[in-house]
UniProtKB/TrEMBL annotation:
<protein>
    <recommendedName>
        <fullName>DUF536 domain-containing protein</fullName>
    </recommendedName>
</protein>
<keyword id="KW-0175">Coiled coil</keyword>
<feature type="coiled-coil region">
    <location>
        <begin position="87"/>
        <end position="156"/>
    </location>
</feature>
Amino acid sequence: MNKTVKELADEIGVSKTAIYKKVNENQRKLWFSKIGNRFVISEEGQKVIKSKFETKNKKRKLQTDNQELITENLGTQTNNHQVYDLNEQLLKQIDSQALQIEDLKKTKTEQFKQIDHLHNLLDQQQQLQLNTQKLLEEKVQLLETKENEIQELKEKKWYQFWK
């Protein structure tokens, strides 16, 4: 079925001028005929013209798809940079925490050493206290013994001293 230039242009989605530009003079003579004041295009001409625009549309679609991929890649690269930056921050934080852990371990070790030292001092203090207590008891015992002897001597009569 023959279509007018306007009908074919609307079907393809282009202007009438674009159709005229795609068709050369020889093709126009073969496919175009004038009915009244309108040009109509034969079915063979319609197929060829559509194929010319489909090729161009395919190229545009490929360019659009490529542009979308480029935009998507840029977005992915941005995301990759953000992930990289986040990884860097996390690694720094891990290193910082590892240093804190090492400091805490050293502090804990020093505290255990101090506790051991204090236990030793406490043991020494208790031993000194025990020795002092024993010496004091011995002195008290000795003193009591001396007092008892003195008391016995006082109780003896003068003539019993040599007994």
